Amino acid sequence: MKDSKKDNLYKKSFPESHEFKFDDNVSNVFEDMVNRSVPGYEFLINNIGVLSKKFYQPNTNVYDLGSSLCACSKSILNKVENFNGNIYAVDSSESMINICKKNIKSNNIKYVNSDICDVDIINSSIVILNLTLQFVDVKKRTNLLKKIFSQINKNGIIIVTEKISLEKASDDMFFKNFHDFFKENNGYTKEEIDRKKIALADTMEIESEVMHEKRFNLIGCNNFYKWFQCYNFVSWVLIK
Q1: CA neighbor of 142 nearest in space, from 219, 209, 240
Q2: CA dihedral for 91, 95, 99, 105, sign (positive or negative)
Q3: Whether the model pTM is above 0.90
């Protein structure tokens, strides 16, 4: 992304009341932030495009829910030959949408500044929730996925990527420490990591792999596969 800057947001301290928000400050450094914070991110994005190439149905739409800077949308356009539908890039952050409009020139991407819970899925073979569900109120997650699964086309897919908690406390502690080490290795200080954790505490609620897969069953999907895991980040493909 042309205007991306280095993420130094949490080098300074914040008031205890500060909460992480996808505002202008975050949007302007988000590309650097996510690449330095999410293990395997480049591989993940590239292969969301590959999965889309496999499952895309001609003359249908794609919904990138919680699209942020549209990394998934761009990967799909790069991988899917003769793409002839629309990608609806939906995000509640106006600043994210504005950056994408400025930097991505594609007639196939339609930008929607909206809460993803308010969006209907129309004639779609692919819906992406990449690191998105964790920012949705836990009480709304099952109904959201149920609605999406009911509205996608037959043989369509939902790709869900999430940071997870582990069932065993010892494993959870290992991966938390390993993830912190990953971020330190990418130039973040311990103080930056701790400050961001505090800011995210009331904004992002992560769940276990077991909880996610129980939810997939609850919405009527029994045909799902974990296709990616790197540290405590997991992605599934749900097939209708």
Answers
A1: 219
A2: positive
A3: yes
